[in-house]
Amino acid sequence: MDRHTSNLPGDRRYPVLRLCAGVSSLFGTLLMAAGVLLLVSGLAAVLAMMGGGPPGRPGPLAGFGGLAVLVWSTGLLGGGLQFVGLGALIRLMIHLEENTRASARSLGRLVETRPGDDIGAGRPSFTS
């Protein structure tokens, strides 16, 4: 039986998926950084609204603007976390496929080196 094997080495398989994983992780990191910046500015605005901030004229985020910034920051943090998770999941699936391919190759070599042994002797066959 002729087995199908890929012509590409392991580190060059799935270049588009590897690119998507990298871009997704980068975009998620940028979103989380923006979310942290908004969270800090929103907390400062809310503290200023409550009277715990520095004295002086209230900034543009005072009042309900600070609360809106807090909502946006949690949305950006959550979205960024999802993008980072997506990038990690794509990389995990690529590694899983590579490990499965290596295991199949090793099992194929094991069977080829011992062709006279009847590995499944005494066990029922479920193929028809």
Keywords:
transmembrane helix, rod-shaped, mainly alpha, 128 residues, 2 helices, membrane
Q: What does the model show?
A:
This protein is mainly α and 128 residues long. The chain has one domain. Helix content is 66%, strand content 0%. The protein contains two helices and no strands. It has helices at residues 15-49, 64-113. Helix 1 (15-49) packs antiparallel against helix 2. The longest helix is centred in the last third of the chain and has 50 residues, at 64-113. The chain is rod-shaped and about 80 Å long. The protein starts with 14 loop residues before the first helix and ends in a 15-residue tail after the last helix. The model has no long low-confidence stretch (mean pLDDT 79).
List the helices and strands and how they pair.
Layout: H1 15-49, H2 64-113
Helix pairs in contact: 1-2
Radius of gyration: 28 Å
Low-confidence blocks of residues: none
Number of strands: 0
The share of residues in extended strands comes to under 5%
Sheet bearing the most strands, described? none
Query: In terms of structural class, how would the helical and strand content be classed?
Result: mainly alpha
The number of distinct structural domains comes to 1
How far the N terminus sits from the C terminus, by CA atoms, comes to 18 Å
- SSE succession: HH
Q: What is the mean pLDDT?
A: 79
Residue share in helices? 55-70%
Helical segment count: 2
Classify the oligomer. single chain
Inertia-based shape: rod-shaped
